[in-house]
TrEMBL record:
Domain PD-(D/E)XK nuclease-like: 172-430
Annotated stretches, region: Disordered: 1-94, 245-266
One Pfam family cited in the UniProt record for this chain: PDDEXK_12
Annotated Polar residues bias: 64-81
The protein's name: PD-(D/E)XK nuclease-like domain-containing protein
Compositionally skewed regions (Low complexity) per UniProt: 37-49, 252-262
Species this chain originates from: Pyricularia oryzae (Rice blast fungus)
Cross-referenced InterPro entries: PDDEXK_12
Source organism, top-level taxon: Eukaryota
Amino acid sequence: MPDTPPPSSNLRSASPSKRRRLEADEDDAHFAEVDQTPRPTTRPITQPTFDPNRPVVLLGASHSHLQSLGSRTHSTGSGLSPTRKKRSTSPVKRTQDLLAMSKPIKMQSVSNREEQLPAEMLELCSRVEDITLLESPVVPPEARAALQQEIGKNRRLPPHWFLEEDTTTASEERRMAAAAAVYAELASLQKLKRVAKQCEEEAGSESDWTTCVYSNMLELATAGSKVQLVDITTARVAPEWQSTITSTLPGSSSASSASSASRRPYVTDDGGAAVVVTKMVDLALVLDEDEHTPLGSAIQDAIGSAPAGEKSINQSTYGRIALRPLGVAIETKARSDVEGGRVQLALWTAAWFARMQAWVARKPTEGMPLGLPVILVCGHSWELSFVCDRGEKLDFIHGFPIGGTKNLVGMYRLLAVLRVLVEWMDTKFRSFFNKLLDIA
């Protein structure tokens, strides 16, 4: 892979604490009841462990909300704003339950990349797997001694791990500055490795892992780019883009009910709609825009007169991402809950596709994005997945490990993969929004 300019030597030591959505998350199994209470602006630092038995909740919604869908089509998978009068609930906590949605989401492990991934995601996947599967060089030669110490002085380090030494005719001053940046990055990774080990051995909370390990790794990856890390633990999906579910879950024997629901994706047999309300995801990589940048200014103009639920380029009106297109959502777990994390990422991304469908409907000359990368982190391990829009359904393609924080070589590979994702966001992902909003 091409050499990546070393990031700033300053590792953020005070990444914002991961604020949890509600203190009641630890005890209350019904998100519908929690949803009635406004979220406070601050959260306790202590992170409760995720309860895999806590359900995602479906709220009944009135048929009258169909009037607010505007130009959105049934293929968007978007839903209706939940009402407080009708509160029928049903759990959606398994990946199987996602098949009952009006726009089903199917989980698939990777098997045939060429068949499973659209062209742009396949290209991105290939660049990632050059690093993870083909083990292209990612470790600077300055880190050789540190890796040798880590694995033992009598073990041979594979030569293909290491980048070539800089033999350019750059000035001595520039070479020294580049070497200093590499050593600073190595020191940052060594510190993150120690902290991750402490979090593992001392049963660190999810908040601790996220604040002290995950966020700092992502900050290293985005340093010097036009991509920014944002904590989105309080970013709700706007009701306009929430997914809906049919009146029957998988395994139901009511064929006629399922058939009726499939013909009317937003409406159940009794004239209402079941709206999926989920926990939010934790972190996001977004384009670093604001009202003073060309793209941020164009977004601000586009959403200026929009209804309340549409005052954002994304599926959430949370202020930090209103003007910043969101390219990679990241869900974190201190301990393994792979299925729960995938469900959260799937529903969050389904809402993103619904929002993009509404944007594209305003300018039909621009095609829909066909895929989006997402990341699930459990303890030391990081996994990349791709959510792909097939029109009538979404496929969640998982099974792409991208490194971790147990050893330095895994951290260097992870950092290289994250930088590939950052580069993709700052080029092809940004290009989609520039074209959509007529930015030259």
